[in-house]
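User: Round two. Same drill as before: sequence, then structure, for each protein.

Assistant: Same drill it is. First protein:
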Amino acid sequence: MRDIFVIMRKEGGVKKTEIVYGANLNFVRASRIIKWLIEKELVTVESDRYEITEKGEEIFREIDKLGTLFK
């Protein structure tokens, strides 16, 4: 999920293809994860471009903090 958030933080959002290749996922798995993220209001989609929401940014920051604990 962290990889997906990192990719989606780009200005103007990203297309699903960029998420798939950037996070090393297949389209089916990426679609399921993205759908869940949208349902939880962590991501929005507009004109086939996915963007992280403010709520998603908060979750990303917490995930990032956890990552530093395990390094």
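Second protein:
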Amino acid sequence: MTLKMEPCAPFEAARQMNPLALAYIGDAVHALLSRTSRLEKALRLSDMHRLCTAEVNAQAQCRALQRIQDRLTPEEADIVRRGRNAHPHHSAPHSASSQEYSAATALEALYGYLFITGQAGRLQDLFEIGREEEESACLKPD
């Protein structure tokens, strides 16, 4: 299932947005991509939930960013840099280091930017590359 969308903002306006605002949208987009990707498989609801929560957390998002880092355009890399350097007014969760949390914010900012600018194909491609190894690791029995 692919995400269909229209641009919400022109590229220049989206580039000027606060990276934390982009990450706010990107967090929801990432969760939606993760959840909708599970609908194509015949999984139990509990398995879908386990897979999604394992994929949409700071540590997994940090690994996803590492997987896509060398495939980013200069513009995307700049959004990632801005997202990584943004400082929310709260600390990182106990389950992640501050570096992992910054990387997760950077990935979410990128996803938010791609969503807002209507780049659904690029968003879907990077999402798939970023999660390549995650799903197989999460499906192993408890």
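The helical segments are 11-15, 19-38, 45-55, 58-68, 74-85, 98-116, 120-130, 134-138.

User: Perfect.
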